[in-house]
Amino acid sequence: QVHLRESGGGPVQAGGSLRLSCAVSGYTECNYGIIWYRQAPGKEREFVSVIDGVGSVFYADSVKGRFTISRDNAKKTVDLQMNSLKPEETAMYYCNWCAYWGQGTQVTVSS
Length: 111
Known about the structure:
mainly beta, single chain, 7-stranded mixed beta sheet, 53% strand, globular, 0% helix, 4-stranded antiparallel beta sheet
């Protein structure tokens, strides 16, 4: 059984930064990377970034150059450093690994 737990969300002013963390526990036979998604009220879930087992990364165009995903295998965490945040990026941020999801962490960006 796998458990994912996000942390690091909170309120921030536009242009500010937050660092989200996804703590992974348990084990599964899964070769996919760990993905960060976000979902704003009334909107569909949106892909943000992914990192695979060898550290290859991919970002949504909307966050390229501002967000950085990283993993610490010893700590079993995947972090998302978010800089230059915009009000429209207010959302619940979730991490996902195969069939498993965390409970999310709220990011609120004020203008």
